[in-house]
Design brief:
By secondary structure, this protein is of the alpha+beta class. Helix content is 47%, strand content 6%. A hairpin with a 2-residue loop joins strand 1 (15-18) and strand 2. Helix 3 (103-109) crosses helix 6, helix 5 runs parallel beside helix 7 and helix 9 (233-241) packs across helix 11 (257-263). The chain is globular, with a radius of gyration of 24 Å. Substrate-recognition component of the SCF (SKP1-CUL1-F-box protein)-type E3 ubiquitin ligase complex. May play a role in accumulation of expanded polyglutamine (polyQ) protein huntingtin (HTT). It is found in: Nucleus.
Length: 367
């Protein structure tokens, strides 16, 4: 007898109630944009740091012809990705559930595309993509890798339009391009999922993004009202003390001479070092100035090379220890409707929630 329906073990369709009755929710499709015209201006030969060519001219010529035919198969039906606010993290097979929740599955199902539009979650998603680029890129499935580059494309477009935190994206693209070059040179082409010409296109796209970000010009805001320079010194000083990243302090100090003077304050950098590092770590890497005093600014950047700094995010994913569910918490719904962000069965749901850092997100799926 032929099997005509869905697998009985599947979670089934999602339905919403409307005025016309119940309607089925269709999964959202995530399509990669066609950038053939832009990529034609980029050289088809990707060069390693030591000057070695990854691909020969014949490979690049073949990739160019292939790109003209179907770049990333844009004309075909693209891979569909669910946009869910929570997923169940199961690490073993049961009678009700078969298999495991992998990193690629979680990355596909959780709604990262909408998360990058939220300024509270933007840095969190970028940091997660950077960690995946450094060590977990090969563990993603082909669909997850395609979704990865789709989200990365949206991030780059947002930065080019809004000019929000381009330094963070530059670091991400640098790590991603270095990882791809090392994988192809040291490990071999077989470790990468998909046809090799697809990865040539992706490397060229990364190079294009890096060029666009390098040529990014910050638009000058025309405002006849109150500006940052009009604030009193104690308020400007309080703003600087709110930063947890030394590069943000240096960037703000380049705006005006007054801000530069405040950004060089020894007490400011001392507080920053004390926030991120311990006293034992100070003693191992003491740096003295010409006057014999501790140079806290140089200390901060020196310690940063040896020890991780504390991460701060406006919003993160949360994990429910009671339900083993990973979810985005909507604070507006939580306040208005007492919505926990997922169907929690605990008597006191808030006591079961724990924020999930980008590294913790990756560690959840290591078996």
């Amino acid at each position: 007898m032929p099997f005509l329906g869905q697998d009985w073990r599947s979670p089934g369709w999602r339905w919403i109630k409307t005025e016309d009755g119940w309607k089925r929710c269709e999964p959202c499709s995530s399509e990669l944009e066609d950038e053939n015209n832009k990529l034609n201006n980029i050289s088809h030969t990707i060069i390693l740091n030591d000057g070695e060519d990854i691909y020969s001219a014949e490979d690049c010529e073949f990739a160019s012809k292939k790109r003209k035919k179907d770049h990333f198969r844009n004309n075909a039906k693209s891979q569909c990705f669910y946009r869910e606010k929570w997923i169940y993290v199961h690490k073993e097979s049961t009678k009700e559930r078969h298999g495991y929740c992998t990193l690629g599955e979680a990355f596909n199902r959780l709604d990262f595309s909408s998360a990058i539009q939220d300024i509270r979650r933007f840095n969190y998603v970028v940091k997660l993509l950077q960690l995946i680029a450094k060590s977990q890129l090969t563990s993603l499935s082909g669909a997850a890798q395609k979704n990865y580059f789709s989200i990365l494309d949206k991030i780059v477009r947002k930065v080019l339009e809004d000019q929000y935190n381009p330094r963070l994206i530059k670091d991400l693209l640098q790590d991603l391009s270095s990882t791809l070059c090392n994988l192809i040179r040291s490990v071999g082409k077989s470790v990468l999922v998909g046809n090799i010409d697809i990865w040539i296109c992706r490397l060229e796209t990364i190079l294009l993004w890096q060029q666009q970000l390098s040529n990014l010009q910050m638009t000058k805001q025309v405002n006849n009202g109150l500006t940052l320079s009009d604030l009193p010194l104690h308020m400007l000083n309080n703003i600087l003390y709110r930063f947890s990243d030394g590069w943000d302090i240096i960037t703000l100090g380049q705006v005006t001479p007054t801000l530069y003077m405040l950004s060089e304050d020894r007490q400011l950098w001392k507080k920053l070092c004390q926030y991120h590092f311990t006293e034992k770590q100070f003693c191992r890497h003491l740096i003295l100035s010409e006057k014999g005093l501790i140079d806290w600014k140089l200390m901060y950047f020196a310690l940063q090379k040896y020890y991780p700094i504390k991460e701060q995010y406006g919003d993160t994913l949360h994990f429910c220890r009671h339900c083993s569910i990973l979810f985005w918490k909507d604070y507006h719904l939580a306040l208005l409707l007492k919505d926990t962000g997922h169907p929690c069965t605990a008597n006191d749901p808030d006591s079961c929630f724990m924020p999930v850092s980008p590294q913790h997100f990756i560690d959840l799926f290591k078996f």
